[in-house]
Amino acid sequence: MKKDRKVRLRVFLIVWIVLIVGLLAAVLIVGLGRGENESIREAMRDLVLHDRNKISFFGLKVNPAVGSAYIVTAVLLIAALLIRIFAIPRFKTVPGKLQAVIEKAVDFFGGMASERASRWVTFVSAYIFSAGVYIFFSTVFELFGIQALSAESRSITLPAPLADINGALAMGVLSFVVILGAGLFSNGPKGALRVLKDFSLPISMSFRLYGALLSGLLVSELVYHYVALSFVLPVIVGVLFTLLHAIIQTYVLTVLVSIFYGEAVEPFKKKNKKRSRKNLESESEGVKE
Questions:
Q1: Where are the domains of the chain?
Q2: Exposed (0-12), middle (13-18) or buried (19+): which is 125, by Cβ within 10 Å?
């Protein structure tokens, strides 16, 4: 039995190596001279500015990331509804695989919120959980390569929602509004003013998301564009870049939101009462003596 397995493994490896060598030979012999419909410069420009290849949405020409955002949102809402109806009522003391994954995620974000916030921990843990899940699956979305037709009837691949500056700004501004509202309801106008001092916070969070996801998208597009690199390598680059960005950006934004939220809801320290006049006079007399 062991010998048979070893033989099968060797045959599989040999076939796999032959296929890879054959693909590389085909690339070198045939693929290097093929023409491209658009230059790499045009492709990069469209990924950043979205001035071409827009999609039609109820008669309006919008960026493809809008369609991606609606798809991700719909999938997450449907999945949450199904989990709430069918999975959660069946949770047991000894968790199964799905229950263990959900509990680990909830505990992770809940622990992150409880460490940094002193008030309304349940609210901020629910928010960073929702934001983290959206960021992760919005980033992983580009791995599926969902196709759509542009307004000019071209076949395009829908990008990650947060690879568009508008999607990243929406996430950053929403997080800032949550922090600002927490400061206002917790400490009144003074709490809101304390949050408003960091006016660059929504911009920094938005550009951090946008820059990280766009850089990964540009690298992937660069690899896919050239035929010599378009076999085997995109699988490694695309998966590694996408998963790495998804994990890092989810962690970074949720940590930042929990930190700033904790600072916003932190009560103001009461100033020490001024010393009485008698104490001041007695101290001054002691100094004179």
A1: 36-267
A2: buried
